[in-house]
Amino acid sequence: QTRNEENPAASRTPNDFTAENYHSMVEAKNGWRTLCVGCTCVLVVVVCSLAGALASSRGRAAPPPETIYVTNAPSSEPIISPIEPPEDFAFCYESDEEIQNSTRYSNIRASLVNSGVSSSQEFSQRESYQRKSLCWLAIGDRLQLDSSDPFLQQRYSLATIYFHFNEPATLIEQGWLSGRSECGWLPAIECDSRTATTVQKLDLSSNFLIGALPKEMGALTRVTYLDLSNNLLEGDVSTVIRSWSGLERLALASNSFASLPSGLGDLKGLTYFSIAKNDLEGPIPAAIAQSTGLEFLDLSMNDFTGEIPTLLGSMSSLEALYLHKNALSGSMPESVCILRTMSLAQLSVDCRAPGIEVICDVPECCTVCDRYDSGGVELGGMNL
Questions:
Q1: What residues form DSSP beta bridges with 368?
Q2: How far is it, in rounded angstroms, from Cα 177 to Cα 168?
Q3: What's the pTM value of the predicted model, to 2 decimals?
Q4: What torsion do the CA atoms of 97, 103, 105, 107 make, to the nearest 10 degrees?
Q5: CB 301 within 8 A of CB 347
Q6: What is the pLDDT of residue 67?
Q7: Residue 4, pLDDT score
Q8: Between the CA of residue 269 and those of 46, 199, 218, 220, 264, what are the distances in Å?
């Protein structure tokens, strides 16, 4: 009895022991089942999250890192982007041997000869400006136009200007002979606004150009604006511009021209013509009146003599006529004074005392009696 009291388990029956153990085992098993279910749910959530993230990453690219750029302050004036110089092509015009087997050179030469812009004889002369222009176009030009390109002749004609006038540095600074299209040789050249391929404006003013124009310029038949002022040019520009039927503005001031262009009256679209400050002498040619479309005519600062042609009165479109700083004499023709009642707003001539050369009989016929500046502002006579 004492033994059983000290060890209660010894007094239990087998059935009592089994029932108690069963309940303990059930409780333990239920706990492990709950724990497993919880872990399984957590694992499912984690796997689903990873799968969703992976699918999303496959659907769209990761955004690139943000880049911060530091730029210079804006310039006050437009600048020209850096340009590549032409490839070395001096060997082409220094020797005939180097180019004998060049198919490209031969094809471009044949194309230019067939167009009539230059001749085989001119290309055969080493160091000629035509030969240098051809060599640059075939070998040195980074643009590498094909011999059948419709703008090959235009690009060649512009190159002849550069080489004919001994390679002016001012033109190189503007991008001439660069690998860009000639429409990018700014500001001397502007092309048509519709296609941006055909040269329409050519401003060669103040480039230290000496002598006559190269005849190859005549191929630029679509030019409407030509400014050659402030150079030392001479000769007859009509040899170049004769076929420029669309020419509207021709500026030849401050050069060494000794005569008016011979074919000026054939340019029916011409509205602006200035040949001030040249070497013109003798009477004013009456043929100038054939340019009936002119709105602006400047013959000032030359050595014209004699009387003013009455035919100038037939130029009914004139808005400005400058004849001052010449050696003209007589009276202002009445026909010209009549234009003052029409569109002619500015008329200058040497009519100021004490050195009167031309008499203005009609009151208020002459608006300026001595000189004016380039902006139309009077510098000593009556106001314009």
A1: 348
A2: 11
A3: 0.75
A4: 140
A5: no
A6: 40
A7: 47
A8: 83, 17, 17, 16, 10
Question: If we measure between CA atoms, which residue out of 134, 139, 173 comes closest to residue 155?
Answer: 134
The sheet with strand 320-322 has its strands ordered as 189-191, 199-203, 225-227, 249-251, 272-274, 296-298, 320-322, 346-348
Q: Which two tokens stand for residue 156?
A: 């060649």
Q: Which residues of the chain have a pLDDT value below 70?
A: 1-85, 370-384
258 vs 81: CA distance, rounded Å: 40
Residue 274 pairs in a beta bridge with 251, 298
Residue 71: the pLDDT is: 41
Strands 199-203 and 189-191: antiparallel
- Within the chain, what is the greatest distance between any pair of CA atoms? 169
Label each residue of the chain as H, E or C.
CHHHHHCHHHHCCHHHHHHHHHHHHHHHHHHHHHHHHHHHHHHHHHHHHHHHHHHHHHHCCCCCCCCCCCCCCCCCCCCCCCCCCCCCCHHHHHCCHHHCCCHHHHHHHHHHHHHCCCCHHHHHCCCCHHHHHHHHHHHHCCCCCCCCCCCHHHHHHHHHHHHHCCCCHHHHHCCCCCCCCHHHCCCCEEECCCCCCCEEEEECCCCCCEECCCHHHHHCCCCCEEECCCCEECCCCHHHHCCCCCCCEEECCCCCCCCCCCCHHHCCCCCEEECCCCCCEECCCHHHHHCCCCCEEECCCCEEEEECCHHHHHCCCCCEEECCCCEEECECCHHHHHHCCCCCCEEECCCCCCCCCCECCCCCCCCECCCECCCCCECCCCCC
Amino acid at 33: R
